[in-house]
Amino acid sequence: MGNPTVDETNTSKTTESLFTNKDPKLAELFPEELIGWHGYVEWDKYPERCQKAHEILTTYKSKFTHIPEFQFEPLPATNPILIGHRWKEYHAVLGPYLKDIPAESWAIVQREKAADMIHVLDFPYNGEPPRNKLMQNKMTPNEYHFVRNHGGIPTIDKTAFTLTIGGLVNKPQILTLADLQDPKKFEPVEVTVTLQCSGTRRIEQIHEYPGEGDELINAPWGEGAIGTARYRGVSLKKVLNVPRRKVEALNEVLLVWEMNGEPLPAIHGAPLRVVVTGFIGARSCKWVLRVNVLNEPSRGPVQQQEYLYYGPQIGKQNALFSNGFSIQEMPVGSAIMTPNDKQVVVHQGKIEMTGWAYSGGGRWIERVDVSADGGHTWLQCDPDDMTEKHYHAWRLWKITLPVLAEGWLELVVRAFDNACNTQPTYVRSVWNWDLHVTSSAHRIKIYSVNASNPATAKRLRQIEENGDSLEPITRPLMFRIESEEHYDKNVKKHKREPEE
Amino acid sequence: MGNPTVDETNTSKTTESLFTNKDPKLAELFPEELIGWHGYVEWDKYPERCQKAHEILTTYKSKFTHIPEFQFEPLPATNPILIGHRWKEYHAVLGPYLKDIPAESWAIVQREKAADMIHVLDFPYNGEPPRNKLMQNKMTPNEYHFVRNHGGIPTIDKTAFTLTIGGLVNKPQILTLADLQDPKKFEPVEVTVTLQCSGTRRIEQIHEYPGEGDELINAPWGEGAIGTARYRGVSLKKVLNVPRRKVEALNEVLLVWEMNGEPLPAIHGAPLRVVVTGFIGARSCKWVLRVNVLNEPSRGPVQQQEYLYYGPQIGKQNALFSNGFSIQEMPVGSAIMTPNDKQVVVHQGKIEMTGWAYSGGGRWIERVDVSADGGHTWLQCDPDDMTEKHYHAWRLWKITLPVLAEGWLELVVRAFDNACNTQPTYVRSVWNWDLHVTSSAHRIKIYSVNASNPATAKRLRQIEENGDSLEPITRPLMFRIESEEHYDKNVKKHKREPEE
């Protein structure tokens, strides 16, 4: 995925005039009743509220903007790439508190994220960093950490914030942030954690075959929907004081308020979020309000109905919630971050490659192999050129790959984790209707120009002398590529036609 | 791998006359000093004993039988397949106690294992069950459980047996079997565990490209070097009373004395063995004598020098112990157990397939896909046709696969575990010098004869009427396959040559 230019006309303000609902009862119907929380309406406790919202949305149904097709057609070369008009309109007609959420969320993006983020979806905000920015350090700066949202960004007064613990616990409790941060009550922990959206590299599945394509559910992520930070918080098992199987294992559920030594940004869940080590990002809920301990998997939509992994014969024609399995840990995966797909690489017989590799569930990367011939031969990254092992974090890698061949080459990366798991060979092997978990070996195409070949070096000089350019590689050269003498000499030696 | 006929002439007795060492000091040099242990000489504590054995073996070096080549040539169609003459000879020249071990081990095989086991290597004994026997139940009967040995089978008097616990423990201790089995001292546990040799399906790597081929180290396993049993014992962490990272995780180190409700057979480690759940079989030591707690990985040869996973550019020319990584957990894997490779399958448009699927490290199988077209389309096994999920055991699966096509077809299986890990597409992706961890999708070739096709049904009747046979498929039919009238009619309708 390239880094398109920012097109401000694409952003949210335009929808407001088209969709307003002047019903004076809206404030009463959908109140911001939770003290200290702005941009949040409580739905779970009020079925009648859900019903009313459903009625209003049905009234407006025919007027809402159509969800744009983005899989059978090229993605817009804009930034934001997708807008989410329909989701903005939903909020507009359920005002007065909700109507401003899209614009407010966008303002938070502007304040907290880097200017050169790739905005995959304006609202609900989804964004990933430019490829090269992610490779600068194994710790991802907060402003470049990817963001995956299913709704608006609430702003929460941390002094008013409380966490309610209920369900199957011995002692229900309500804790303030100060309670959680009090080392006399709970021992604070710090862990380096890679969070990865299970949609990372989805664009490759889309390029192979389209799948469920709603612009909110299945954002067209590139290789940047992954990031690593050091989180500070407390272990949920200590707070609950009831060890359960999942928390007995290597993976921990943390309640965190600090990210890379800074207070958690609003866009990443301030004042308190969950971080589940070893699990996909979707399990690490932001803006956590309640912990409700159950004796079976939650029936909340994100748990029951989304993040499901289907077989290749399951799709719109037959998918159920129960015939896919729930995606929890990421399998071993990797990506080439430089060079870029379709890049023209002029080199002296060696190409520098960089990228990441990660495996979920407490497993770590043991080996990274790269190939300059589509996967026929593989060269192993030197462990000195890989960042340290962590139970819950990726390893960045780099390698200088000897490349003799010129023209279009397929560069590939595959990783092996400590359980000897590796990646399937082609994208087709992992295609699934919801376009999750693109875990196949990552392949990019580059156009190799090996300047250590004398003929190529000569051509590069000619291009320069003629004021022409190698790129775009698809544009013919504007000067004659061979002299008459040279041509005559060669076709005399190797005649065009057989002698007899 | 087929099930070759037993050829008793291949077994061990023959070597004895050729290699005897009459030195009267042998009994003193290599004594059976451990009370209650027969077939065991203590080496670790006596460097001078190792040196002396090395000297004797060097003296005989030129006389020892050559290790047979079995990778560039077809495997013998005998049972045992490989003999291990050289290892028998090592024991013969180090007698008097060791010389009889090969014959005694073979006698234990005869007593404890099923008559139709496939004896991959006579001595040290390595064997796997016939494919169909492994599929009868998710619990493998003891007599059919695969056996992987690196040496002879000791016989140990369980009343004299003690386990010594030392190294980095607070309190070194010596425990009898009665101590371990006393529920007042240690809580007994029972776990269903699949043990898998990391060499399972090695034969596929050999068929692709040979690797390190010593007949002891790298036995040419088929798909049966895996088995599942219920083990009873105690948790090592309870015995040690020092929790460490590995034992905190899902995987447990058990000390067990019972297998499927029976006392542990001698060949499986009686009276006491280790079972490490979620780890490869090699980590589950048999005939355990001492537990020595270390603060770094052991330098014992099996841990330091064997069971290493190398990249594809590592081999005899450059392999080190430290440039491969240590194989601990198996990745997700699977095998087709019926039909057999190269089998002629006569069917009515549907083929029954059975097999197993397993993932190490506490992960379980979520999905099994099979293909009748080499992996272009995949059909998912119905969860009702798969055995239950266990954290540490395989799932057996079966499926009725619709097959229209006739002729040679490639049937394939691949599994997905709960971390969405799946298997790489082809064997070449996982080839490694030591031929471990054949984790690629399992492929077999069958010759499909679809008797629901009228023309095929007619041919099958003709074959019967003519007293001929379909198999072997490679033998031409002994009757005329088409009448003159039929031929004339067809070549009149569809002429052999163009009209003009």
From TrEMBL, chains A, B:
Residues 326-447 form the Moybdenum cofactor oxidoreductase dimerisation domain. Its cofactor is Mo-molybdopterin. Residues 150-241, 248-300 form the Oxidoreductase molybdopterin-binding domain. Keywords: Metal-binding, Molybdenum, Oxidoreductase. Coiled coil: none annotated. GO terms for molecular function: heme binding; molybdenum ion binding; molybdopterin cofactor binding; sulfite oxidase activity. Pfam families: Mo-co_dimer, Oxidored_molyb. The keyword Metal-binding applies. InterPro entries: Ig_E-set, MoCF_OxRdtse_dimer, Mopterin_OxRdtase_euk, OxRdtase_Mopterin-bd_dom, OxRdtase_Mopterin-bd_sf. GO terms for cellular component: mitochondrion. One of its GO terms (biological process) is sulfur compound metabolic process. This is Sulfite oxidase. The lineage of its organism: Eukaryota, Metazoa, Spiralia, Gnathifera, Rotifera.
